[in-house]
Write a structure and sequence with these properties.
With about 725 residues, the protein is mainly α. It is about 65% helix and about 0% strand. The protein has a two-stranded antiparallel ribbon. It is globular and about 100 Å long.
Length: about 725
Amino acid sequence: MEARGLLTVNGASGDYGSLPGGEQEGPPGSGRRRSHAFAGQPCGVERGTDAEELYIQQAVVLIEDAMQYRSINHRVDARSLRLYRGYYSWICQWGLGLTIAVVLLLAFVERPSSLSISSDPRHRSAPWQPPCGFTESIEMVCLVVFCLDLAVKGYLIGWEEFRKSKWLIAYTVVISFSFIDWMLSVSMACDEKLRVRRLIRPFFLLQNSSMMKKTLKCIKRTLPEIASVILLLALHLCLFTMIGMLLFAKSDDPKKNGEWKLHFRDLPTSLTSLLVLLTTANNPDVMIPAYSLNRAYSIFFVTFSVIGTYCLMNLLTAIIYNQFRGYLLMSVQTSIIRRRLGIRAAFQVLSCQGIQQAAEEHVAVELVLKTMARVQMKSYYREAITKEAHKCADVGYMDREQFRKIFDELDKDRIKETVLVLNAEKSAAERDNYIIEIINLCFILYYLFEVCVKIFAFGWKGYLSYRNNIFDGFLTVLLLGLQITIFVTYKLPFSQWDPSSHSILSLWEMVRLINMLIVFRFLRIIPDIKLMALVASTLLDLLKNLRAFAGILMVVYYVFAVFGIWLFEGAITPPSEMSVLSNTSMENITSNFSMECGTYEQLEYWPNNFDDFAAAIMLLYNVMVVNNWQAFLEAYSRHTTDWSKIYFVCWWLTSSVMWVNLFVAVILENFIYKWDRSHSCSVTDVERIRYETSVQLIFREQIQEPTEEELLCQLNLHPHLHLHW
């Protein structure tokens, strides 16, 4: 029975992060084995001398789950908790991440090896080929690590949940298939043509990231709308292809057959020409032969571009943006639910210190402090939560709501205070001016260098012709004079300067005056600060929110590169004579070879090939950019078959059409939200949002908190922690 209400948002009850089991949960009393459930105990835990220690261990793990937005549906007995914390220790997680990276990087070393300086076949030296068994041994170690990872995950969530987890079942199948394919490679002395397991290696990256799984769900939800627009785009392409073949049919006059000969000779050529025009890569080349004969022919190409490129393609962007508009909010909603559930479970476990306490739902402050001392978290989070908990020390206990509120500190990012802020509440006798003086000196030296460079570049007359330069120069001279005065009065800077007054102005007053002047100098960029800050904060958020998108894009690159090597390895080879002439002039080459302008050979695109994995990745990137990608379409269809165009078109649809639009949608969502907030909030509110809170508090107004009934219902469905109320 799946969790109901808010707890079903975006797979909140089923996505385990690194433990992707339990997408469905059975009802209480379904006969599943509980880790500990004893009749007659209010919390389902056996009383005894070790009971409190077990309570604390459970609460520690549940709080850590809440911090990391992990599912709490795992075993909670003492031995399993130790294994669980060991599994999520930074050593194990880094080791697992390193193993995934190594198994993916093997593609660069395996045959065909990418270990050569150049990928150009004309002067590429023979790459180092690893001996048989070298990469296979490394891969076997990685597969053993994955087997251990699977075994630990399966044990921690239990067999019942394991059977219901599609990701873990797929994990098992992929590992098993990899072992079988590995044995085939070894038995064939590493001389097999196809290593099918290379194609499924990216799965190890996908299954280890809950964010990638969520992103895949969102992409799956968006596919029907994308497919409808792509179908409309295909109809548009076919319609104009038919019209173009009629307009530019072969005539009796050879002089008027330029357009037909180059772009509309047959159906595949016509489709390819207009498909490339859809990306503007061959504009205006595709229309020049016809346009030179009659300017009215331009109407056909302009109409095609306006409808296809500027209407349908942008409509696709709008649809993808509309589908992903709530992606970040939905992800935050799921994270908040997981955090609330983990905190609520920790409270319920800690309140099991007696029947009376459990009935009153109180937790001793001393027990909370003891638990927090063992939770693995950043020190500033621990200090903030402990400080909030101490506020209830007079009473001696806290209720459920107080317990939840102290963990609101987890939603706040650490505020990186400057030296000025740290010194703001100190008296002159307590301040250490050494650090701030060094910082000020660096600023002044930089300003002085800037002024000197400007004077050298513009000359005195040109420098003084700009008001901003006069303003900067005046402040720099004033700052330099104050700094020299400080050196004369207080000598060179050293730690623990004596800030007592030795002249008209004390050292602290002089330093503060310099700081005021430094800040005053920044007034010249006030008109640009707001927009610059908005753009900068959007870019920083993108680095956080696009990791899942970048990971899936890397998976797609990997799969298409492997397919490309299978299909086109060694398909394009330069003539043997060209290797000899590679260091001669272009005139000598063109005298021996006839190369049509704009082709793969004439543009010398030889390094872009599928002869090894690294070269394949670079070629796919060049096609994704769609600049001159028609050269690759034409070359590989000429050297192999026209069906090769399907591969490149599929890659263009996946990367350039779909993924670039997804990227634009995420950028729009981040930027529009920040823009709206910056115009609807006061300056103080904007600064608070940018610097004090995480993305969870940014969406506080849109987030719907789970109710107490929903949390209790989900806890009651826990497969291993059987609590009674």
